[in-house]
Amino acid sequence: MLVVIAIIGVLIALLLPAVQQAREAARRLQCSNNLKQIGLALHNYAGTHGTFPLESYVSEYPDGNYYYNSWIPCLLPYFEQTALANLYDQNYAFFDVKNQAAIETKLSVFECPSTPGGTQLTPELRYRDSSGFNIDSDRGGWTTDYAGQRGIHSSTHAIYAPGAGSTNHLGIFGGGGTGRKFRDITDGTTNTIIVHESAGRAQWLHRDNGELISAKPEFGGWFDYWAGPSAGWMYGFEDDGVTKKGPRFINASNKWANPLGFHTGGIEVALSDGSVRFLSETTNNNVFIALCTYSGGEVVSED
């Protein structure tokens, strides 16, 4: 009997990694499908409006302050979410009470199934959003595991791509109040990231020796609901996942909506042609920088 139990134990030990790998492969496939749907919605939006949506849309309040909504609510009709699109009022900020019911609606297409804990923002998570506004601690809702690509921050670009023109660091969602047209993407749509994984943003996470560590979620910037601004400048980080302008761009930190995913070895990204690609966390920095810009003039290998 003991021999049988021992054999069963050995078989389980042998089979478990294969089962876990199969489950992760299925989750990664779902993540890829999510990004394909997002990419298709962006293409349909651009086909209707002539440009891709803006990074964020500004709402002016009677107190003179300006608050923001993201590009995601603009895509709701293209996900067959017409009822939610009608519920969400873009004349008010995402955190306004008028939009509370909308932001409490989960959008599965913006959730990577590999993210531990999901994308729910529980009421006890008090944090500061990208516009510096303290979200009320009694508000719940859902965030997103995907972020729009603004480009390489100019201070980082000066370090890792010296001599480049001042506008060459911009991504599809970078550069102010003008939406990008297909003809603007002179680097080629197959060579330009439009959306990337930035998962786990119910908290601020960074990698240290392969481990995910939770840090202060209330740190200012880019921990919004799905309807809040969700597009980030790529800073690059040191190995601590905190210090900016370091050499690591992928899986170093999700701070400021930088690229981080829970798949082994890299992240999924949507390109501007609607395709999806897996990028290794060891991707050469020059290649990554080239993929983040839409008009940098760089040459990217098919590999």
UniProtKB/TrEMBL annotation:
Signal peptide: none
Positions of transmembrane segments: none
All residue ranges annotated as the DUF1559 domain in the record: 20-284
Superkingdom per UniProt: Bacteria
Sections of the chain in a coiled coil: none
A Pfam family this chain is assigned to: SBP_bac_10
SUPFAM superfamilies named among the record's database cross-references: Pili subunits
PANTHER family (UniProt xref): GENERAL SECRETION PATHWAY PROTEIN G, TYPE II SECRETION SYSTEM PROTEIN H
Protein name: Fimbrial protein MS11-C3/MS11-G2-like protein
Taxonomic source organism: Blastopirellula marina DSM 3645
